[in-house]
Write a structure and sequence with these properties.
Layout: E1 10-13, H1 14-20, H2 26-38, E2 42-47, E3 54-64, E4 69-76, H3 85-95, E5 101-107, H4 111-119, E6 123-134, E7 137-147
Parallel strand pairs: 4-5
Antiparallel strand pairs: 1-2, 2-3, 3-4, 5-7, 6-7
Helix pairs in contact: 1-2
């Protein structure tokens, strides 16, 4: 079980990990490296402290320094769901980046992710209907947000 202490996770350079270990297409890796290069976010590979177990990846993108907000994103292997990775990312955003607001956009049909957002006290702010195309079909996204003060 993770704690809210950022030091309990080993966060690796996501670009290096996905290219070398996971053999992810380089296009996705460009996205991760451009976030840091352009100052619009930061993502990590989330691993055990001994670097033997890969849990997934997570981070913040769409970072706006002007408005002190960012969008949280993550993907975790199923066996590590509900073990506290998201609070670590949120705490990093609030404490290290000085964010006031962290947003999450969740596919309306993704009940597990919606439940995770609620569990972390993210507030549902609305639904953007048919706002993106995925696999040739329109999908809706629910907007969740958490403020530093909450």
């Amino acid at each position: 079980m993770f704690t809210k202490d950022f030091q309990t996770l080993k966060l690796l350079n996501i670009t290096e990990l996905v290219i070398k270990r996971l053999k992810t297409p380089k296009l996705k890796c460009v996205f991760f490296s451009d976030l840091e290069k352009e100052g619009t976010g930061i993502w990590w590979a989330v691993c055990s402290l001994d670097n033997k177990t890969f849990y997934g990846a997570g981070g913040l993108n769409s970072l706006s320094k002007e408005h002190k907000k960012a969008e949280i994103g993550f993907w975790l292997l199923k066996e590590f769901w509900g073990q506290g990775v998201m609070p670590v990312i949120c705490n990093y955003g609030f404490d290290n980046l000085g964010l006031h607001r962290i947003e999450g956009l969740v596919e309306t049909d993704n009940l597990n992710c919606k439940n995770a957002m609620k569990k972390l006290d993210f507030k549902h702010e609305g639904t953007m209907r048919d706002c993106e195309i995925k696999n040739g079909k329109f999908i809706s996204l629910d907007i969740y947000a958490k403020l530093r003060s909450e």
